[in-house]
Design brief:
two-stranded parallel sheet, 11 helices, alpha/beta, elongated
Amino acid sequence: MTPGESELTGIDRERLLRELEDLDRRLKKVQPSGARDEPEALLALVRLVRGLTAEDWRDFSHRHQIDNYMALPLDGSRYPVLEELLRLIRRLSHESRHDALTGLLNRRAFQRRLDIEMERSRRMDTLLSLAILDVDDFKQVNDTFGHPAGDEVLRLLARLLRRHTRKINVTARIGGEEFAVLLPGSGPFQTRSMLLRLQDRLRESPLAWQGEDYRATFSAGISSFRGESQISAEQLIEEADQALYLAKDRGKDRIRCASRSLRLAQPGSMVEPEEREMLLYRQSRKKKAKSGADDPSESDPG
């Protein structure tokens, strides 16, 4: 017995080796010449061996140059192959849909959810709002404190999004420092109210890196959709992006609503009470502005 083979005690090593060598010869006979090098001709062979560990098999297969085979332990489970494959599928599925740093949905998964929610809004004739958030001066945070500090800002905002949004809302990281929230059943003013609370939570959250304190804020743009509208998902995103740009242009740490979205919430429509109150406030300010009493651009809740 060579060093390292003691781990295979209780397993008929010679019988296992003969079995695999015989299988290898049979496969070579049935496969066309050169097919073993073609991706579509590759086979996954799994040998269940009672008492064998993954480490044992790695040493054994390498020693006998049969690394093209795989063995899984049989003890403890009736279906080890299926269970291992299910674990792998779940992990890969999660990784393909979620952002590794924040755990939120990634852009591709969020786009799919947006398409689904817009179709549901069309069928049920309900409101749907999209908010796009962007961390203010994020490059400055990275340049001043380093990328680990920037990563902590992103993780913090992701935690706040999970904690302070409804379960039916959809949250995602769709870019470097850019996040998105999809709010089924919410209009522009209800969405803005949620974002204002989120801004407060972010300002109040302590951040420090290597003994230095710093503050993080975000700006946001909102676009809303009602079922009968013919707007596409791309247009909804573009409207929110444009509103976000205006919020940044106004001085950052601000929230803007797309003008078309504001027209969706008219008196008598199905809006939340707080939305109706803010809408009436906006209209009263506009009336004052027309009489020269005020500047609507400074009082616009969007």
